Amino acid sequence: MTHTSRFLSTVALVAPLLVAVPASAQSGLDPVDLRGRRVIIVAPDADDPRIELTRAALGFWNRTLSEVGVDIRLREASLVVASPGVRAIETFARFVAQRGGRIPKGSSGPQPPPELKEVGGDVVVLLSRQPLLPFAWPLVGSPDYFVVIRAPEPRRTGDLRVLRNIIAHELGHTLGLTHHRASFTLMCGPCSAIAAADDTLEWLPLTDIDLERLQTLHAPR
Q1: 124-142 residue pLDDT tens
Q2: pLDDT band at 21 (very low <50, low <70, confident <90, very high)
Q3: How confident is residue 32, by pLDDT bands cut at 50, 70 and 90?
Q4: CA-CA distance, 198 to 208, in Å (whole number)?
Q5: How far apart are CA 80 and CA 27, in angstroms?
Q6: Long-range contacts of 81-84 (CB under 8 A, 24+ apart)
Q7: Order of all β-strands in the sheet with 123-127
């Protein structure tokens, strides 16, 4: 299933060798854990504020997964900065975002460029330069999910807090969660930008259905 963000703000979202920065230990996962899903963050520059927002979202999900008693984790495998190949990846992101859920998924849908495949990992998170609709798009092979996060809107008050929840929302789709109609929860569709920007909330909440689905999908082997 294709998953696109439906926060009610203006949800504008954003080559030869990859320039990779060693991953931090933000996810708190032992690198030899075979149930760790490798997350590659692709950023336009090293001081992009969305990098830390993405790491915070990874931490949120790993704490949540631990609390519900499953052993899968999201591990930051590498940070790719200013890759020459990002132009082709951005073009693919724009193609998918403009068509939303109106194109086939998987092997019958539009195929990612070689530059995206070369990034590797299980989940690639593109911190886009573009005002695109955020989404989590399923692929065939490696990576198996392409997550795109829109560019920040500096003039919109609280936008980084909104983005923080958007990133967590899209990562939730890579774990198998789907949309529901509770607009003041993390996996909402549509969502409340007012709630997402609320600085009294650490994160928009998950529902009991979300937590039960995580336990069902990722029960310990």
Answers
A1: 999 999 999 999 999 988 8
A2: very low
A3: very low
A4: 22
A5: 17
A6: 81/19, 81/20, 81/21, 81/43, 81/44, 81/45, 81/46, 82/19, 82/43, 82/44, 82/45, 83/15, 83/17, 83/18, 83/19, 83/42, 83/115, 83/119, 84/15, 84/16, 84/17
A7: 3-4, 135-138, 145-149, 123-127, 36-43, 73-81, 20-22
pLDDT in tens, 51-110: 999 999 999 999 999 999 999 999 999 999 998 899 999 999 999 998 876 777 766 777
CA 32 to each of CA 36, 64, 114, 134, 221: distance values in angstroms, whole numbers, following the listed order: 8, 20, 27, 31, 16
Structure tokens at 194: 């007012």
pLDDT recorded at residue 79: 97
CA dist 158 and 215 (Å) reads: 32
CA–CA separation, 173 and 170 (whole Å): 5
pTM of the shown model: 0.84
Q: Which residues contact 133 (CB under 8 A, 6 or more apart)?
A: 4, 5, 11, 13, 97, 100, 150
**Taking the domains of the chain in order of start, what are their residue ranges?**
3-154
Say how many residues make up the chain.
221
Is the distance from CB of 62 to CB of 77 less than 8 angstroms? Answer: no
- In angstroms, the CA 63 to CA 168 distance is 12
Cα-atom radius of gyration of the chain, to the nearest Å? Answer: 16
**Distance (Å, rounded) from C-alpha 2 to C-alpha 147?**
11
